[in-house]
Fold:
Amino acid sequence: QVQLVESGGGSVQAGGSLTISCTASGDIRDFACMGWFRQVPGKGREGLASIYFGSGTPYYGDSYTDSPPGRFTISRDSTKNTVFLQINSLKPEDTAIYYCAAASLPSVGGLCRPTGVRYSSWGQGTQVTVSS
Structure:
């Protein structure tokens, strides 16, 4: 079982940037794929980005791209078993609890995507609050 601990959330002004972190512990095979999600109370969970931990290949939505298509950038530091999510140009509607999740590649069918795959381990979440 993978343990995931998010950090770096907080209160920020609109227009600013924030980087949140997620550190994994356990068998590295169980976090071969890691993703970032967010949830607003009363709404469904939204997949933001995912990353193949070994190669560092990121995915945003269902598309692979070297360049983030939006305001979110996922990255990882393999030496620290840590995945990051940078959020730029923050908006009040970005206010949510942000979660990271992990899965082995077999459990997600080899597809490390932020949506449409089953993540088996979840962190406790970190609150991000954006004020206007």
Notes: The chain has no helices and twelve strands. The mean pLDDT is 91. The longest strand covers residues 18-25.
